[in-house]
Amino acid sequence: MQDKIADLLKDINGKDRISDFNMDLFENDMLDSLGIAQLVAALEESFNIEIDPEDILPENFSTVNEIDALVRKYKA
C-alpha cells in the first residue's frame, strides 16, 4: 500500500517518487495543504474508503507511513 501512496504523491506534486517512507513530507516540500486535499480525494478513490474530516490533520499526512496507517484504519 505504501508504494501506491508514494505513486499518488508523485502524481500530485510532480516530483520524484518517494523512497523513504519515514521522510517528513512537509519539511521536504512534498506536500502542502492543497496537496492534502488532493491526496485525500485520491486515497478515497484508489482505496474505496471515506476519510472522516476529523482525521484530515497534518500529523496524519506527515509521512507515507502515517498515511498508510490512516488508510489501513479505514480499510479495516
CATH architecture: Orthogonal Bundle
N-end to C-end Cα span: 14 Å
Order of helices and strands: HHH
Helix content: 40-55%
CATH classification, class level: Mainly Alpha
Instruction: Please give the count of helices.
Output: 3
Strand content: under 5%
How many domains, as an integer?
1
The CATH superfamily is known as ACP-like
Count every beta strand, where a strand is a DSSP E run of 2 or more residues. 0
Largest sheet: none
Examine the coordinates and then state which fold CATH places here, giving the name of the CATH topology: Non-ribosomal Peptide Synthetase Peptidyl Carrier Protein, Chain A
Return residue spans where pLDDT drops below 50 for at least 5 consecutive residues.
none
Detailed description of the structure:
It is a single chain. The chain contains 3 helices and no strands. The chain is mainly α and 76 residues long. The chain starts with a helix and ends with a helix. Helix 1 crosses helix 2 (33-47). It has one domain (2-75): ACP-like (Non-ribosomal Peptide Synthetase Peptidyl Carrier Protein, Chain A), CATH 1.10.1200.10. Helix content is 51%, strand content 0%.
